[in-house]
Specification:
With 164 residues, this protein is an alpha/beta fold. It is built from 3 helices and 8 strands; from the N terminus they run αββββαβββαβ. It has one domain: Nucleoside Triphosphate Pyrophosphohydrolase, CATH 3.90.79.10. A 5-stranded mixed sheet has the order 4-1-6-5-8, with helices on both faces. A 3-stranded antiparallel sheet has the order 3-2-7, with no helix packed on it. β2 and β3 form a beta hairpin. The longest helix is centred in the C-terminal third of the chain and has 14 residues.
Length: 164
């Protein structure tokens, strides 16, 4: 299997700080009381949003559409931007310094059948938002909270910057 963009770049620069862009999507159920979330291969601590890092040449919108298809089996279209966030990590779980710029989108289903890929996505479910689901990392928890409290109140995207 071919190495992904991040693995190829890390071979060149080692653990030195790098900037990566990720995109994630929020897909509501019909009743708008649950969000499609995934159990990830790399954490057993909670849920995550379908999404991933951009490959060279991707736009954030292309990336979220591709990642949704790969991780959930669903074809989606981007409805609106929800957020733009940054998170600086001095040492991630692989020992690398990185800053991640995350772009969040609300998406709608246009086709496909819901199915976990069994590699990156171990489980998929429309998880009720009340009580607020437990996410796999603090940044995702904060993002979910803001989606539920701020984006539902306004059509405007929000911006957040965090430093570690």
């Amino acid at each position: 299997m071919a190495k992904n963009y991040i693995a190829r770049m890390r071979e060149k620069v080692g653990h030195e700080g790098m900037i990566f862009v990720s995109a994630f999507g929020v897909l509501w159920n019909e009743a708008h009381d649950a969000i499609l979330l995934e159990k990830r291969w790399d954490s057993d601590k909670g849920w995550g949003f379908p999404g991933g890092y951009l490959e060279y040449g991707d736009s954030p919108m292309q990336a979220v559409i591709r990642e949704f298809k790969e991780e959930t089996g669903l074809d989606v279209k981007v409805e609106r931007m929800l957020s733009l966030t940054t998170h600086l990590t001095g040492k991630n779980s692989w020992g690398d310094a990185q800053e991640t710029i995350g772009v969040g989108f609300e998406v709608s289903k246009i086709g496909g059948e819901l199915q976990k890929d069994g590699t990156e996505t171990l489980d998929l479910a429309f998880v009720p938002i009340n009580p607020e689901p437990t996410m796999f990392v603090p940044q995702a928890q904060d993002t979910l909270h803001r989606i539920l409290t701020e984006n539902e109140q306004s059509q405007q995207p929000w911006f957040r910057e965090t430093r570690q």
